[in-house]
Design goal:
This protein folds into 3 domains: 88 residues; 46 residues, no CATH class; 130 residues, no CATH class. Helix content is 17%, strand content 34%. The chain has 5 helices and 22 strands. The strands form 6 sheets. Strands 1-11-7-4-5-6-3-2-12 form a 9-stranded mixed beta sheet, with no helix packed on it. Strands 9-8-10 form a 3-stranded antiparallel beta sheet. A 3-stranded antiparallel beta sheet has the order 13-14-22, covered by helices on one side. The longest helix has 22 residues.
């Protein structure tokens, strides 16, 4: 049979367990409509579909030669016979050819499918050689089963048409800033405000700014007589005093790596670091002795505000 040609260079992924994953493009196999499962071999070595990964096939050794696809076509309909022999008549013979069945459908419509059953003939197994490759080997874990749109690969020019191999090449994994910010916002009950800072810290704009209302270790209360608009309340309210603690966190948007797996490990470690830091800060208490300022006013400092320190 005619060979199917795919002249692109391909890459086998050698996983940690010693297996080799091969991406077989969908267009090479889509035209086969088998009556049973399509199988692939290369130089007699079988390739099996990789569970959870579409279009990826696993082999014990890397493919070094052409692929051969094996399949059995669907059975061929060679005629039709009456489902109930007692329905036989001059108008409805016991057996008819496919051409007769098609002609009679114009007169009797779908009733033909109720009257007649197809007579099928099994087809012999077939095989065809696919010209693919050459193949090169990359090292790494299997690709994520459900993809990951956060990963942006730095594809060299020779690989621009190979998005299926992006997981094993250098790139960057996004969404870290948004994920840490979302975590902070979920803890809203103990936070005053969360957002991206417009000020510069260490010469960098866009740090994650987290403001936390910190209660005193020994509760301090005051009488509230007006609302937020300055309108006098009908009756005073007792509210708990807090100190605002500001965190300015240099959380990056992107995490770079030599491969998706490397970047994902770093991304996960950084997410854990920043969220643990926020979690720990939301549980602190302000010092009653120093008023939550971090220093004890002495002499004129009671009347002269201390200079604002640079926040990092």
């Amino acid at each position: 049979m005619n060979n199917q040609n795919d002249p692109r260079e391909h890459y086998a992924i050698r996983t940690d367990d010693g297996h080799y994953l091969h991406h077989i493009p969908h267009h090479l196999l889509e035209r086969y409509r088998p009556g049973d499962t399509v199988t692939l071999t290369s130089n007699g070595q079988p390739l099996t579909p990789t569970p959870g990964l579409r279009h990826w096939w696993t082999a014990e050794q890397p493919v070094t030669g052409p692929l051969t696809v094996h399949w059995t076509p669907y059975p061929k309909t060679i005629g039709y016979q009456l489902s109930d022999p007692t329905d036989e008549s001059k108008q409805f013979p016991a057996t008819i050819t496919p051409a007769q069945h098609s002609d009679m459908r114009h007169d009797f419509g779908d009733v033909m499918y109720r009257l007649y059953d197809p007579v099928n003939e099994q087809q012999p197994k077939q095989h065809e050689t696919l010209t693919t490759g050459p193949w090169r080997t990359l090292e790494g874990a299997p690709p994520p089963a459900e993809d990951d749109p956060r990963w942006v690969v730095d594809l060299p020019a020779s690989l621009t048409n190979y998005p299926e191999y992006r997981w094993w090449l250098p790139g960057k994994l996004g969404g870290l800033y948004d994920a840490v910010e979302a975590h902070a916002k979920r803890k809203r009950t103990s936070l005053f405000g969360v957002g991206r800072s417009t000020a510069q810290y260490d010469g960098v704009e866009g740090h994650l700014r987290v403001e936390i209302d910190v209660p005193f270790a020994r509760p301090v209360t005051r009488q509230k007589t007006t609302d937020w608009r300055g309108k006098k309340l009908k009756r005073p309210e007792t509210v708990q005093e807090t100190v605002k603690r500001k965190l300015v966190l240099p959380v990056p948007t992107w995490v770079h790596g030599d491969s998706y797996a490397d970047a994902l490990a770093d991304w996960t470690a950084q997410f854990t670091f920043w969220t643990d830091l926020i979690n720990s800060e939301t549980g602190v208490k302000a010092c009653n002795h120093c008023g939550g300022h971090g220093y004890i006013p002495n002499g004129a400092e009671k009347y002269t505000p201390a200079p604002a320190s640079r926040e990092n």
